[in-house]
Amino acid sequence: MEEQNNAGIKSALYRICLITASALLALGVCLGITSAEKFHQKTVTNGIHYFAPEKGFHINFPDSPNKESSELNFSQLKQPLHYNEYKSCPGSKLCFAVGFVDFPSKWKFAGARKLLQGALTVLTQKEPDTQLVSQEMTSHNDYPAINFHLKKGEKDVEGRIVLIGSTFYNLSVTYALADASPVESQQFLDSFYTS
Predict the structure, then answer these.
(1) Of 76, 121, 149, 183, which is most buried, counting CB atoms within 10 Å of its CB?
(2) Cβ neighbours of residue 26 under 8 Å, at least 6 residues apart?
């Protein structure tokens, strides 16, 4: 009789554990989905790890970025291209940015090198008083890319344009020469990846 009671108690405890574990798992999944929808950033050692859900990219900003949008006009296109940019400026003389624009798929016939060169040309012409100091073809996580250094008035801009599919990603760090930190710039550029 005592063995039957012990077996009944064990069975009841087992069911309670299963129900509790299932409830906790369901609660964790719900909370995980809710927090993923509300928060796209988390604190990392050197700032904020940011995820942009509309383009599926990740990057480490020094602090929370702001989103800006603009339009790029091309004579070959009837409609302007939409340029979106996430920018974090922790100091008045230092800015970290990731911009992206989708281009027409028919442009792909030109090849990655010409597309990247063209994107860099547009970038230098977009801003007044901007001069190209240097450029170098490279790759970023096996995607074609071009590193660049611009002089923009009294500020310098170090960056990389990455071509992924039919999207250009413009990663850049703008700084006054006295505030330059090549290590910080390189860490920012290298932290970019897509998922």
Answers:
(1) 149
(2) none
Distance CA 141, CA 95 (A): 23
| Distance (Å, whole) CA 112 – CA 165 | 10
Q: Do 32 and 79 fall within a single domain? A: no
In which domain, by residue range, is 13 found? Answer: 1-39
Asked if 53 and 26 sit in the same domain, the reply is no
Neighbours of 118 (CB within 10 A): 16
Look up tokens 């009841």; give the residue.
Answer: 12
Label the pairing between strands 47-52 and 57-61.
antiparallel
Q: Specify whether 24 is located in the same domain as 45.
A: no
Neighbours of 84 (CB within 10 A): 16
- DSSP character for 79? S
Say if pTM beats, i.e. exceeds, 0.85.
Answer: no
Query: In tens digits, what is the pLDDT along the chain, a chain of 195 residues?
Result: 555 555 555 444 344 333 333 333 332 333 332 333 333 655 555 688 999 988 989 999 988 999 999 988 776 778 888 999 999 998 777 899 999 999 888 888 888 999 999 889 988 887 888 999 999 999 999 999 999 999 988 889 999 999 999 999 999 999 887 666 667 888 899 999 998
Report which residue type is found at 25: L
